[in-house]
Amino acid sequence: MADTGTGSMTATTLQKAATAVAVVFLLVGVLGFIPGITTNYDTMSFAGHHSDAMLLGIFQVSVLHNIVHLLFGVVGLALARTFRGARAYLIGGGVVYAVLWIYGLVIDETSSANFVPLNTADDWLHLILAIGMIGLGVALGREVGTRTTHRTT
């Protein structure tokens, strides 16, 4: 149960969505450290474009990349405890992923600027995450206002 800011201790749909997104990030972070699910696991480096490790054989990962996913999940779980936090996590996280998408498009994948590392599949996934997270934050971010307007005592 979470504090919605309306005096209720029931999690809103927005908070549940933020929690689900956070759990997916935690899962992805853990899966990135599992050989087999991550192909070329033995080539994984801490950071940089030299890592040939691929989550699900598609998304380039490194130790740093996996840690970032884990931290993003932990932050999401913490922020999902309140309505405002959940909304900030989804919209703010979506903005972060939009910036990552643009960053991935403009850097040379073989340069030292690709320190996370990112490949083309990562870039397009970041766009989808940006749209999805911002969309959820905006669409579900009106829920408490609607609920408090129609509240009866």
Automatic annotation (TrEMBL):
Pfam families: DUF4383. It comes from the Bacteria. Keywords: Membrane, Transmembrane, Transmembrane helix. The chain crosses the membrane at residues 17-37, 57-79, 86-104, 124-141. The keyword Membrane applies. This is DUF4383 domain-containing protein. It comes from Kribbella sancticallisti. The lineage of its organism: Bacteria, Bacillati, Actinomycetota, Actinomycetes, Propionibacteriales.
